[in-house]
């Protein structure tokens, strides 16, 4: 027995000494979302994943 976790989104947060924060979100696109991304904000990764820098 056990659980199978299939993530669709990860977010990484890094606090900086100047009190600004870096947030990067990785997410897996659904088939419907493949052509609905803004290339100025969203960057394609591998295996159907994209990543975006988020505002604090």
UniProtKB/TrEMBL annotation:
<protein>
    <recommendedName>
        <fullName>Pyridoxine 5'-phosphate oxidase dimerisation C-terminal domain-containing protein</fullName>
    </recommendedName>
</protein>
<dbReference type="Pfam" id="PF10590">
    <property type="entry name" value="PNP_phzG_C"/>
</dbReference>
<dbReference type="InterPro" id="IPR019576">
    <property type="entry name" value="Pyridoxamine_oxidase_dimer_C"/>
</dbReference>
<feature type="domain" description="Pyridoxine 5'-phosphate oxidase dimerisation C-terminal">
    <location>
        <begin position="1"/>
        <end position="56"/>
    </location>
</feature>
<dbReference type="InterPro" id="IPR012349">
    <property type="entry name" value="Split_barrel_FMN-bd"/>
</dbReference>
């Amino acid at each position: 027995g056990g659980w199978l976790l299939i993530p669709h989104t990860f977010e990484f947060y890094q606090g900086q000494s100047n009190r600004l924060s870096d947030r990067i979100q990785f997410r897996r696109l659904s088939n419907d979302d493949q052509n609905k991304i803004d290339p100025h904000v969203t960057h394609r990764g591998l295996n159907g994943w994209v990543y975006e820098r988020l505002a604090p």
